Automatic annotation (TrEMBL):
The keyword Metal-binding applies. GO terms for molecular function: nucleic acid binding; zinc ion binding. SUPFAM superfamilies: Acid proteases (SSF50630), Retrovirus zinc finger-like domains (SSF57756). Keywords: Metal-binding, Zinc, Zinc-finger. Residues 250-279 are annotated as: Disordered. This is Transcription factor interactor and regulator CCHC(Zn) family. It comes from Helianthus annuus. It holds the Pfam family RVP_2. The keyword Acyltransferase does not apply. Residues 266-276 have a biased composition (Basic and acidic residues).
Length: 500
């Protein structure tokens, strides 16, 4: 009996132990799981808070950028009167339209996704036809998804072709001030310069603008004195105002010296009217119109001491010459001056020396005995050069010095250049220490910019004498001594054929 009771107690104890262990394990798991859940919950809440804060910051930043405004509608966009484009194949007009339409995008806070839709709505005529064909080519869905930068590439390729841009670059290099107002020529200069960024640096802009101006502006403006292009433009405007004032002063002086026929006629009319309509007749003594007795009636004439007339109308008045101070004739009738005039007239009839301007053509240079022409390099650039013994200085054309290798400086004092037919002008600039290559050897030459015809460079006596040049007119050749002491001969053209 006792053994049977012990056998029943073991399973009971085991079952009780299992229950106790299960309860303890359950309590332990519950305690640890509760802490783990709280930790996960806190972590998730922290991440959510960070995301919410970032979203709020992004929203506030977007509002600040847009000024608190929502993207504009098409109606608001059109209210700003955006410019239209008709499809001119002109880079200047094309770029101006792009700049203006982008300005409207910015002012209206237009959404970037609407740029193409709103912008292409301003295309007209040929431009609209081009865009319609482009949409057919790429498809309507691709056209709707196109961004503004993607639109500009084919748009510029069609309306701003490279060939036309190259022509504008050439026009920029050859642009000259020919009487236009400073504002007008500056506008032309700025429009064309947009396409010459690779040719013109910020520093060179001043030089190009200065060289473009006419001589009456250039001689009063020195590029090195100004830091920016804007300062040179303002200086040109001030010079324009001075020139206008000078012209107005000259006109006023001319009117004072030579009154207009209208004024003279009016004066004569007035006198006639005053004589015929109750005005006082002219006095026989003083010549003026007045009533009553003349106050000079009893005043004796200072020449004859008689009364009844004034000195200006005295019958005994003696004419005295202001040249020889002898009575009886005027200076214009003086025998001494008449004799000198006859001698001068006879001298003026003598044969005059032949005048030749610097504007010789290549054909004229071939027949002139004292000039030699040919192609030589100036600062490594090929140029048509004229060696002229009739020129005291050496010159270079304005178009040629646009190359950056030529640096302009001021002459010590302005130089008057006579170009024939008694015409002359003032030059103030010079390109010093230019390099002219002859027979693989470099020669230094100072060149003064001026307007020319077919030749780019004229080499005068200043350079020829420096290198001990001897000109053989009959054979049209120049013998000179190079910097290394070598004897060099330059052959010109004679009758169209080179002299051998």
């Amino acid at each position: 009996m006792a053994d049977g009771g012990d056998d029943d107690a073991v399973p009971r104890v085991t079952e009780q132990m299992r229950v106790v262990i299960a309860e303890e394990v359950g309590k332990a798991i519950e305690n640890s799981l509760s802490g783990f859940t709280d930790k996960i919950q806190n972590t998730v809440l922290s991440i959510v808070d960070e995301r919410i804060k970032k979203l709020e910051d992004d929203t506030n930043l977007a509002k600040e950028k847009s000024g608190g405004r929502k993207p504009c509608s098409y109606k608001e966009f059109m209210a700003c009167k955006p410019p239209v484009y008709n499809g001119e194949v002109d880079p200047i007009v094309c770029q101006l339209w792009l700049s203006d339409i982008e300005g409207v995008f910015e002012r209206t806070h237009c959404d970037e996704n609407d740029y193409v839709a709103y912008g292409t709505g301003q295309l007209r005529d040929q431009a609209k036809d081009w865009w319609d064909n482009k949409k057919k080519e790429i498809g309507s869905e691709a056209a709707k998804a196109m961004i503004w930068e993607e639109f500009q590439t084919p748009f510029l390729k069609h309306h701003s072709p490279k060939a036309v841009i190259n022509r504008i670059k050439e026009e920029f290099m050859q642009l000259r001030h020919k009487g236009e107002s400073i504002d007008k020529i500056t506008g032309m200069f700025m429009d064309k310069m947009k396409f010459c960024d690779e040719l013109v640096t910020n520093e060179e802009q001043k030089i190009y603008y200065h060289n473009m101006l006419s001589a009456e502006y250039r001689e009063f403006i020195t590029p090195s004195k100004y830091e920016t292009l804007t300062e040179i433009i303002n200086a040109a405007r001030e010079r324009e105002i001075e020139l206008k004032k000078s012209i107005e002063r000259g006109k006023r002086r001319a009117q004072e010296v030579n009154p207009s026929p209208t004024k003279k006629a009016r004066t004569n009319e007035t006198v006639k009217k005053s004589d015929t309509k109750g005005g006082s007749p002219s006095c026989k003594i003083c010549g003026k119109g007045h009533k009553g007795e003349c106050r000079f009636k009893d005043k004796p004439c200072p020449i004859c001491r008689k009364t009844g007339h004034m000195a200006i109308s005295c019958p005994e008045k003696v004419t005295v010459c202001y040249n020889c101070y002898r009575p009886g004739h005027k200076r214009s009738e003086c025998p001494e001056l008449v004799g000198k005039k006859d001698v001068q007239d006879s001298k003026s009839e003598a044969p005059k020396a032949k005048e030749r301007s610097f504007q010789l053509t290549a054909a004229e240079a071939k027949v002139e005995p004292d000039v030699v022409s040919g192609i030589f390099t100036i600062n490594s650039i090929p140029a048509r050069v004229l060696f002229d013994t009739g020129a005291n200085k050496s010159f270079i054309s304005y178009g040629f010095i646009r190359h950056p290798s030529f640096v302009l400086t001021k002459l010590p004092m302005p130089l008057e250049v006579e170009i024939g037919n008694n015409k002359s002008f003032i030059v103030c600039d010079v390109c010093e220490n230019c390099k002219m290559s002859i027979d693989d050897e470099e020669y230094t030459i100072d060149l003064i910019p001026m307007s020319m015809g077919e030749f780019q460079v004229i080499v005068g006596m200043d350079w020829l004498s420096r290198y001990h040049a001897k000109v053989v007119c009959f054979r049209k050749e120049i013998n000179l001594t190079s910097p290394s002491g070598k004897q060099v001969t330059i052959y010109g053209e004679k009758g169209g054929n080179p002299v051998l």
